[in-house]
Amino acid sequence: MTPQEGEEKDLHPPPVSSSSLVVGKRKRSKSGRRRSSEEAEEQRLTQLLFGGGALPSFGVTKQPESASTKKKRKRKDKKRKKEKETISQNEDENGDDENDDGQDLLFEIDRTGVDPSTQMVNGENEDKNNNAVVPLVDQKEKEKEKDDGPVWVDEEDAKLEINLLQTDRLRKLRLSRTDTGVLNGVELERRMRERYQSTMERTAHTEWADITTTTTTTTTTTTESNRKTGVILDQEDNHQGSSVSLLRETGKRRLEPHSLDIVRCPNVNLSDHATNKSSSTAVVRVVQFHPGSDPERPLLFTAGLDKTLRFYQVGGSDDGDDDKSKKIHGIHFPNFPIYSASFLGTTGNVVVSSRRRHFYIYDAVAGKLNHIPKIVGRDEKSWEVCTASPDGKTIAFGGNDGYIVLYDARSRQWIDNLKLNGNVRTISFDPDGRYVLAAGSDGEVYRWHVQSRKCVERFANVDGTPCSSLAVSSQHLAVGAHSGVVNLYQNSINPNDHWQPPSQSSRWTTAAAAAPARTLVKSIMNIQTGIHATCFSSDGQILAMSSKLERDHQGLKLLHVPTATVFANWPTAATPLGYVWSMDFSPNSHYLALGNDKGKCLLYRLNHYCKSNDS
Q1: DSSP symbol at 274
Q2: Quick count: other Cβ atoms within 10 Å of Cβ 3?
């Protein structure tokens, strides 16, 4: 038997000392307090979550309750329970959806971003009779929300400090020269908004470029002008000489020959030279009136080698002078001397080109500048010759080696190439935009149908020298040559006659191989140097011709088209024209604008057309 088996088990525990009993009581008291504290915390959280008015203790341990406190708490719980039962009975009687205050709701549904007018909660807002959705938000509250201020405001803007004197671009935001120029972000934003409104809304009057209004105005003005004009050109007569009448008149709209009633007005860009004595004196290469502007107060632009495109309005001055022009605004093109520019129809867009491979399309309405780096598929480094169709859809550029590049102004894509034998010197569209005409160094005039891109006509100019200018009216075609001769032809063609060369291998080098010769109306030889610009009036009764190599009256002549005679009374030797580089007639021919080599845009009023409208 082992010692362990022989040992007798002691059934009575050894006596415990008093000190060990105290330690055990302490342990039991600590565990009890811990359990009571956990129970109290659990009860507090339960009351906080499901109601009962308990407040968070924020880490403070709740002490054990006394007997009197427990009795008071039990009485309060019974009273609260009875109140809840009473409230629940009332809700059962009156319905559960009368509690609009939402104070006893345990949670809310987040409907951020949902239209309040179509919200439904568990189908409670759906009309049971007609299944209509009942709006949750009143209409007045919705309007109030729309009238609220910004959704978010950066509080740091008020703490910023911006010095307007640090940069030149911010100096214009100063209210006066004595302004210290230190602003916070909020004030800077306010001044920038005021600056934008003052420059774009009040200064840039671009109502003329609204497509919806200008199209209606243009159609109405054209119809009214045709009705009042009473000038019907005879297409069936064969005009063999200058003595044969070219028009069939019906009365007072007829323009009398030999003497022209013309009055000089203040220069279009007079305000620029008056306010800035150091204003540019660069050549005004382009001047053009907007075809859809008001005939009484037409709008025009000037452009030239000073790299600036400027817009003016005749009769828009503040002093009430109907003939004084007011500057609308201008835009500068760095390193881009402007050689050609044209309105794109009745829109507010202007195409601007130079001796660069890139060009611009400027939206005057939105103030947006579109940069076209190049025409894909073409290697030209210069687009010096450029013109736009009357409808503004097509732009024709003069390219290298006799190519005419057609470009779509809307899609900004290349359309097609047209080819003539010589170098391209001048391009023009006919008034209805169906045909594009071009001429160049080979002395021949080409006409293409825009839609089919077929050459419908080709003839040699009678002069035989290189052609430098083209002007087209509804009934006449004027061809200016380097010799100073302007040949006037009748502008008539059969739209169905798409002429083709005798053989595809022909080089079309002679007039015999080209289309039948045109009937020449008159050769005007009043200018001794090369013709640079030609332009018809709106009704085709006046043809303006100019040469940039002769000054004053020797470089500009006006032709009375019905009789093919030059006006003798104007211009005179005392007319200070300078060297005329560009010119254009306003809508209804109320005004004639001339751009010269001194950077001035001269303006003249034609009283015949003004009196005709008044009558």
Answers
A1: H
A2: 6
Contact 536, 542 (CB under 8 A): yes
DSSP letter at 130 equals T
Which structure tokens are listed for 146? 């729309």
Pairing of strands 325-332, 340-343: unpaired
Cis peptide bond prior to 571, omega within 30° of 0: yes
The residue among 449, 594, 596, 201 whose CA lies nearest residue 605 is 594
- Helices within 101-184 (DSSP H only): 139-146, 168-171
What contacts 24+ positions apart, CB below 8 Å, involve 230-236?
231/539, 231/541, 233/474, 233/475, 233/540, 235/475, 235/492
Which among 248, 261, 288 is positioned nearest to 475, based on CA atoms?
A: 248
Give 313's strand partners. 299, 326
List phi, psi (to 5°) of 117: -70, -15
Q: How far apart are the first and last CA of the chain?
A: 152
Across-strand partners of 371? 360
In angstroms, rounded to a whole number, what is the distance separating the alpha carbons of residues 261 and 549? 27
Reference 558, options 576, 520, 585, 530; nearest CA is 585
- Compare 280 and 281 and report the one with higher pLDDT: 281
SS3 assignment, position 557:
strand
Do residues 527 and 484 lie in contact, with contact meaning Cβ atoms separated by under 8 Å? yes
Q: Which of 577, 46, 105 is nearest to 558 (CA)?
A: 577
How far is C-alpha 582 from the geometric centre of its chain's CA atoms? 27
Closest to 279 in 3D by CA, of 289, 288, 270: 270
CA–CA separation, 457 and 448 (whole Å): 7
Q: State both tokens at 340.
A: 């050609």
CA distance 395 to 568: 37
Give the torsion sign (CA, 221, 224, 228, 234): positive
Alpha-carbon distance of 466 to 440, in angstroms, equals: 6
Torsion angle, alpha carbons of 289, 292, 295, 300, to 10:
-20
* Strand ranges, E, within 176-248: 182-183, 232-233, 247-248
Q: What is the model's pTM?
A: 0.60
Give the tens place of pLDDT for each residue, 363-399. Answer: 998 999 999 999 999 999 999 999 999 999 999 999 9
Dist CA 475 CA 450 (whole Å): 19
Q: How many helices (H) and strands (E) does the chain have?
A: 9, 32
For Cα atoms 241, 243, 245, give the angle at the middle one, nearest 5 degrees.
95
Q: Which residues contact 280 (CB under 8 A, 6 or more apart)?
A: 304, 306, 308, 599
- For 374-384, what is each residue's pLDDT tens digit? 999 999 999 99
SS3 category, 3: helix
**Tens of pLDDT along 221-271?**
444 444 443 433 333 334 333 333 444 433 447 899 989 999 999 999 998
Q: Which residues contact 483 (CB under 8 A, 6 or more apart)?
A: 463, 465, 530
Judge residue 294's burial from the number of C-beta atoms within 10 Å of its C-beta, 0-12 exposed, 13-18 middle, 19 or more buried. buried
Assess contact for 472 and 429: CB atoms under 8 A. Answer: yes
* DSSP state letter for 519: P
